[in-house]
């Protein structure tokens, strides 16, 4: 497992509201299909939900999966 995959997951979480909520609710389930070590999964489970949502909310809507839908 590499830092690159963790970055992909975090990137997806900040640009895809549905995935972000899945990650917050159940990181293990949301990360199925990603090759993560137990330590990496634990770190993702420990992400601060409010900080993640706040960062995602600060992004320009044009770079999010919900572009054109009016919400992040």
From TrEMBL:
Gene3D superfamilies: Nitrile hydratase alpha /Thiocyanate hydrolase gamma. GO terms for molecular function: catalytic activity; transition metal ion binding. Pfam families: Frankia_peptide. Signal peptide: none annotated. This is Nif11 domain-containing protein.
């Amino acid at each position: 497992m590499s830092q690159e995959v963790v970055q992909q997951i975090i990137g997806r979480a900040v640009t895809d509201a549905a995935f972000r909520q899945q990650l917050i609710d159940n990181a293990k389930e949301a990360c199925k299909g990603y090759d993560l070590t137990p330590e990496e999964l634990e770190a993702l489970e420990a992400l601060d939900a409010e900080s993640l949502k706040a960062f995602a909310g600060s992004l320009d809507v044009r770079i999010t999966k919900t572009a054109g839908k009016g919400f992040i």
